[in-house]
Design goal:
This protein is of the alpha+beta class. A 3-stranded antiparallel sheet has the order 1-2-5. A two-stranded antiparallel sheet has the order 3-4. Strand 1 and strand 2 form a beta hairpin. The longest helix has 19 residues. The radius of gyration is 20 Å and the shape is flat.
């Protein structure tokens, strides 16, 4: 049976679980929605999604310095208790997220952080590009929507493909950790520093 994006979306809406995990569950169950929900519950992923609303005020600030000390990352990852924050599983998750930020250069944690004015400006640029490519006006809106979605996937940490397993999104990895550790986990903020980044070298030469 063909697993459609609509089926994946429905399962995600019903369970709160990441898109890739939903798709895998549907493939495993031959597209049976109720059985797919059972699979996700058995794995603890549906339960993990329900924990997402709980307050997470403990956690760690993880630091990652790349070889040569020309690139560094600080990221704050929160959980509910100091006990979980001290576990090796949580520490490894924090290290993985810091490395993700170093390698994939996200600008935001999640799409909700992006100002509407930034999205509007991006949409104008994408629309103009599509028109310059000679695309018909009637499909430009659909193209812009698709490219904006790609922009989110590149710019937002939680929506990026996980560097250790590109079949998963970062949010999927976090949901797996929530299911395993039994607490809500949330990436609060990060900072990425790269030597020379943002310096106007032309101005310096003058």
């Amino acid at each position: 049976m063909t697993i459609t994006s609509a089926m994946v979306k429905e399962l995600r809406e019903r369970t709160g679980v990441g898109m890739m995990d939903c798709k895998n569950a549907l493939v495993e169950t031959g597209g049976d929605m109720e059985k797919a929900i059972e699979v996700l519950r058995t794995r603890g992923l549906a339960k993990a999604a329900k924990k997402a609303g709980r307050i997470a005020s403990e956690g760690l600030v993880e630091a990652y310095i790349h070889m040569g000390a020309r690139l560094g990352v600080l990221v704050e990852v929160n959980c509910e208790t100091d006990f979980v924050a001290r576990t090796e599983e949580f520490k490894q998750l924090c290290r993985d997220i810091a490395m993700q930020i170093a390698a994939a250069k996200p600008e935001y944690v999640r799409r909700e952080e992006i100002l509407a004015s930034v999205i509007a400006a991006e949409e104008r640029i994408l629309r103009e590009q599509a028109l310059q490519e000679g695309k018909p006006e009637k499909i430009v809106d659909k193209m812009v929507a698709g490219r904006i979605e790609k922009f989110y996937q590149e710019a937002c940490l939680l929506e990026q493909n996980f560097i250790r397993d590109p079949e998963k999104k970062v949010i999927d990895v976090i949901h797996e950790a929530i299911a395993k550790l039994g607490e809500n986990i949330n990436v609060r903020r990060f900072a990425r520093f790269e030597v020379g980044e943002g310096i106007d070298k032309t101005a310096c030469e003058e």
